[in-house]
Amino acid sequence: MPAADDLPANAQDFRQNLLHWYEKNKRDLPWRRTSDPYAVWISETMLQQTQVATVIPYFARWMERFPTVAVLADAPLDDILQAWQGLGYYSRARNLHRAAKQIAETQNGVFPDSFTDVLALPGVGRYTAGAVCSIAGGRDTPIVDANVVRVLCRVFGVLGDPKATDTQAALWKLATDLLPPGNAGTFNQAMMELGALVCGSPPKCERCPVQSGCYAFATGAPSALPQFAPKPVFTVETHVSAVVEAEDGRVCLRQRPLDAGLWAGLWELPRVVAVADESIEAAAVRAATEAGFAGGTPRNGAVARVRHGVTTRKITLLAVPVVAASDTTSPEAVWLTPANALETLALPSPQRRLLEQILTARQSAATQPTLF
């Protein structure tokens, strides 16, 4: 525990007011009804970059399908990716699988209880390890996530970009110093809850239980903190998927390699990024060729269109039918109807929306079993 001189002057009032507010205002969330570290780990991983309302049904389905580390470790990766569909950032799901296997091999299937061992799991950083160890393990480990960053920067006047190394270090030290011994789990959840429900963007200062000691509120410009650096400029890209169709209405889909970065291990219609001055038809033929088809001929232009964003990219994804002169022997390719693909494969959200549009167009056709 830090010496009293190391603590901000308003630290004690902050703790007391925050915990009192949390006791009366905390949400009844499913992962707060358990002390199982596996469940807390799953929830914290799902909540990264994802809204609570979105996570709740996914968490319930996940815990029913993969109730323990052992079950998760034994499950095929395709099943895990399919269960994760719609949450995005699929590396989280792949890391959960890798970590479960590591626990099965090195911890006899028992979720580790030390901060060091939890931090050593694939995909687990300082925040997640701190959350699991404090909430499920009762350890005095701090957390700093986006919600906590807003609270700490505003209440205690932490200046500088929170993503900068020195500011990050200051935030982690402050979060550590503020921990009430023996009650870190509740305190950490209270800070996250305050950041989520009150100290958002913009902050609801009129509802804040720690307003009287808040540096940012006293300045009259609470939204000026945190001082994040300007966001990078977005780039615009066009992605084209080739819809290569068999006579019976099945289409070709390929599985992305496990080392392919974004959407690794997921299935998609053959896709390329259109280059400068390349028509979407030419890009579609190139996508089909890269999938193992030869002599492709585009037809009908784009039959489906999806817009989405990835980090600093704004992407328009188009589906263009291609008639191929040869079949593919690519081992990572399968042939399924759009309906079966939607039901059985783990698909990136943009590809899922693309296939849904194709399926809708087919269903609206009067007599033709195929779209093209």
Structure description:
With 372 residues, the chain is an alpha+beta fold. It has two domains: 8-224, Hypothetical protein, domain 2 (Endonuclease III, domain 1, Orthogonal Bundle), CATH 1.10.340; 235-364, Nucleoside Triphosphate Pyrophosphohydrolase, CATH 3.90.79.10. It is built from 15 helices and eight strands. The chain has helices at 11-25, 37-46, 52-65, 69-74, 77-84, 91-106, 115-119, 126-135, 146-156, 165-178, 184-197, 215-219, 280-290, 338-344, 349-364, and strands at 235-244, 251-255, 267-268, 271-273, 297-298, 304-310, 313-323, 333-336. Strands 1, 4, 5, 6 and 7 form a five-stranded mixed β-sheet that branches. It has a three-stranded antiparallel β-sheet with strand order 3-2-8. The longest helix is centred in the first third of the chain and has 16 residues, at 91-106. 38% of the residues are buried.
Q: Could you state the CATH homologous superfamily of the largest domain?
A: Hypothetical protein, domain 2
Briefly note the CATH topology name of the largest domain: Endonuclease III, domain 1
Count of spatially separate domains: 2
Number of discrete helical segments: 15
Largest sheet: 5 strands, mixed
**Mean pLDDT score, rounded?**
92
Under CATH at level 1, the class of the largest domain stands as Mainly Alpha
| Strand residue content | 5-15%
Question: What can be said about this structure in brief?
Answer:
This protein is of the alpha+beta class.
Helices and strands, with pairings:
Layout: H1 11-25, H2 37-46, H3 52-65, H4 69-74, H5 77-84, H6 91-106, H7 115-119, H8 126-135, H9 146-156, H10 165-178, H11 184-197, H12 215-219, E1 235-244, E2 251-255, E3 267-268, E4 271-273, H13 280-290, E5 297-298, E6 304-310, E7 313-323, E8 333-336, H14 338-344, H15 349-364
